[in-house]
Write the structure tokens for this entry.
Amino acid sequence: MHITQISQDFSVSPQITAADVTEIANAGFKSIICNRPDFEEPTQPVFNDIANAAHDAGLKNASE
């Protein structure tokens, strides 16, 4: 997974999956923001799956 730091408090990445969430939490991130609507692309994961993994990893999440 490629994470790009935009500022001290904000980073971006390409589409993540639920399997990426543990790595994100272990890297010290505290929350995940989803900017993509579900089903924008046929192979894109549903955000609810990512949100559940984030909750389990102790991360906050937000979606549009």
Summary: Residues 17-63 form one domain.
